[in-house]
User: Fold this.
Amino acid sequence: MLNEIDEWERQAENYYVLQDEDDSIITYAGRRLVKGDQYLDKNNFLYEVVDLDDYIVHCKFIREVNLKEEGLRYEEATIVPAAQQGNFREVIAIYHTHNAESYVPTDGSDSIYGQGGIHQVGSAMANALREKGIEVVHAQDLHLPHDRGAYRRSRVTVLRLLEENKPDAFFDVHRDAAPKEAYEAEIDNTDVAQVQFVVGRQNPNASVNRRLAYDLKNYSDEMYPGLVKGVFLTWGDFNQDLSPLNLLLEVGAHTNSRESAENGAALFADVVAFYFYGIAPGATIADRNANPPSLRGEARGVSIYEALAGIIGGLILGGIGFYFLNEPARVKELEKNLYFYLGKNSPLRKNVSNNLFLWKEGLQDIGSKILIFARRIKEGVRR
Assistant:
């Protein structure tokens, strides 16, 4: 998988330009897009790619998205500190599939073979999380070169982190290729490079990945308006099939300074800390020790696990109910599907051992596979 533009295209400033029906620019992209890809912009307007004309990407407006309703935490309530739920270990993993990515104004090049400037941006995010008492595993593994095999090589890194560190969430930190103004912003009188999320549409966790991205944008919009510029829902999987809580981050573009990208990554760390663990911006380890988790916040929110259980439960009950009430002749087909996905030699059982490292008691691993199963049921009904 290599859907980013080539080096010569970056140097020639041949970026993809997303335009709406009135030919107004929605955003720029340093990645190749296909029909059906979608983009959620800063105003939460959702667009879909309908045609491509060289570097012009024609999009149609779909709708305005209500992030609060479509995120994992779909109840408007105060986030539940994870320590009160017992769901999280307070471990975040950061890694870099494309190690060489760098920032021209600071690093002198858009790509430095080895640990490019993107590693320092990842360190800025990691350090900001550590200052809040959160354990961070910042993997420095190299997946060079920047070619089609990079994601295959970084997959090994993700699997190792799953086994050894059991993180709550993963962030694959990249930089984009776009004009400087596409990512530059000022927040609290500080120059920052904005953050953009990328969700791969071709992975079984795509629905949950998307809802996670919507959630994080929603919280970011409230905490630091303008920090998150949008969400790409594009072709590919980006190893997100290994974990529903795995997001690809683009922090600035090669035309932004690395310092501004580090500032953006540090602010985004505040969003991550609050979203997952209920830690307020500016809180330090000393603050947390003085205000233990059992006393912090109101336990009125919906945990990610509860939300996942609700989504998965609805899919299962709805699919099975449809079969039994409306398609009794397909019961045998349902039994075959159940055996295929849950039987002794099923893909689910073969893959459970990998993902059990992340999800307590295998909940979210099973959840992601059931999403595939539910889709299979739906396809069976259509046939």
In short: Residues 304-326 form the longest helix (23 residues). The chain has three domains: 7-64, 81-295, 304-382. Residues 304-382 form one domain. Confidence is low (pLDDT under 50) at residues 75-86, 293-303, 344-362.
